[in-house]
Design brief:
alpha/beta, Nucleotidyltransferase, domain 5, 5 strands, RNaseH-like_sf
Length: about 280
C-alpha cells in the first residue's frame, strides 16, 4: 500500500507485444489529434524525397502551424513512391493523403523544397500541380539546400582537395578487408576513432563531420595508404593544409545550419545565423 509508485510499475510484467500495442495506441492518438487540427488550421508544408539502401524511394512530409500562439512542427507522413519520383507521382501521394485524412488542400499556405526538377518544374513539377489546386500557395527554396549548391562551386584547389578526401574514404570502404586493415592500424595507433565517415549529397551537413573525422585520423590514413596506394598518399599529404581549412569552414557551416534548422526557428533567427556565419568565415 505504501510502496513507491515507480517500483510498483516496474514490477508489473509486460510482454514486448503489450508494450508495442500501447505505443501504437498512443501514436494513433497523436496522429488523430494532428489530423483533426490540420482540418481547421492553415499550415506550411515541406516534403523531401530520398532513396533507401534498397533503392526504394521514400517521400517524407512535415508541417508547421501555429497552435494557441505557439509554432508547432510535426512529421506528417512517410510514404513510398512505388513507381517513379516525378512531380506528378509525388503530388498524387500528397493529394491522396489529404483526401484520406479529409484535410482541405487550401489549408496549405506555404511550401518548402529543394530545386529538383521534379519539385519546381514549370509544367510537370510538384509545385505546378500544387498551384493548380492552391493558386495562392507561397513556395520557397530550402535554405540548407541552397548552401549545398553553393559548396559545389568551391575554388578549383579546394574542390580538388575535397575530391581527394572523398576518394580516400571510398577506397577504405571499398571492401570489408580494407576496412578491417584500416581499423587495425587505428587500434595500433590508439586513435580515438576506428573508421572514417561517409558523407551525403542529399544534405551536406555531414561533410563537416566527415572532414573532421578525416583530419583527426590524418596520420593513420597516410600509414594506410603507404602500402595501399602510394600515389594517393602523396596527394593526401600535399593537401593537408587544404583539408584543415575545409574542416574549419564546414564545421562552422554545420554549426550554423543546425541552428537554422532547429525546431521553432523563424526567418529572423535564420538571418541572424547567416550574418554570424559571414563574420566567422571572414575571420578564418
Amino acid at each position: 500500500m505504501h510502496s513507491d509508485g515507480r517500483s510498483v510499475i516496474k514490477s508489473i510484467p509486460l510482454s514486448n507485444g503489450t508494450v508495442a500495442r500501447r505505443i501504437n495506441l498512443m501514436a494513433s492518438g497523436v496522429e488523430k489529434t494532428l489530423y483533426s487540427t490540420l482540418k481547421t488550421t492553415e499550415f506550411s508544408l515541406q516534403i523531401d524525397e530520398s532513396t533507401l539502401p534498397g533503392n526504394e524511394a521514400l517521400l517524407l512530409a512535415y508541417v508547421r502551424y501555429i497552435l494557441e500562439g505557439i509554432i508547432v512542427e510535426e512529421m506528417l507522413f512517410a510514404r513510398p513512391l512505388v513507381t517513379d519520383t516525378k512531380g506528378e507521382s509525388i503530388y498524387k501521394v500528397v493529394e491522396n493523403f489529404f483526401q484520406e485524412k479529409e484535410t482541405p488542400m487550401n489549408n496549405v499556405i506555404a511550401f518548402a523544397t529543394d530545386r529538383a526538377p521534379a519539385m519546381v518544374g514549370r509544367h510537370r513539377g510538384f509545385i505546378s500541380y500544387l498551384k493548380k489546386a492552391v493558386p495562392e500557395v507561397f513556395a520557397i527554396h530550402c535554405v540548407v539546400h541552397r548552401e549545398h549548391l553553393v559548396t559545389k562551386h568551391l575554388s578549383g584547389r579546394l574542390h580538388n582537395s575535397l575530391y581527394i578526401v572523398i576518394t580516400v574514404i571510398n577506397k577504405t570502404k571499398a571492401s570489408a578487408l580494407k576496412e578491417r586493415i584500416f581499423r587495425q592500424i587505428c587500434l595500433e595507433y590508439e586513435t580515438e576513432f576506428e573508421r572514417l565517415l561517409l558523407h551525403t549529397e542529399v544534405r551536406w551537413l555531414s561533410k563537416g563531420k566527415c572532414l573532421s573525422r578525416f583530419y583527426s585520423l590524418f596520420d593513420t590514413i597516410l600509414e594506410f595508404l603507404e602500402e595501399e596506394n602510394p600515389q594517393l598518399m602523396q596527394l593526401v599529404s600535399a593537401a593537408k593544409s587544404d583539408v584543415a581549412y575545409l574542416t574549419d569552414i564546414f564545421d562552422n557551416f554545420k554549426a550554423i545550419n543546425l541552428q537554422t534548422t532547429r525546431q521553432f526557428s523563424h526567418s529572423g533567427q535564420v538571418q541572424n545565423c547567416c550574418q554570424l556565419l559571414h563574420r566567422e568565415t571572414n575571420d578564418i
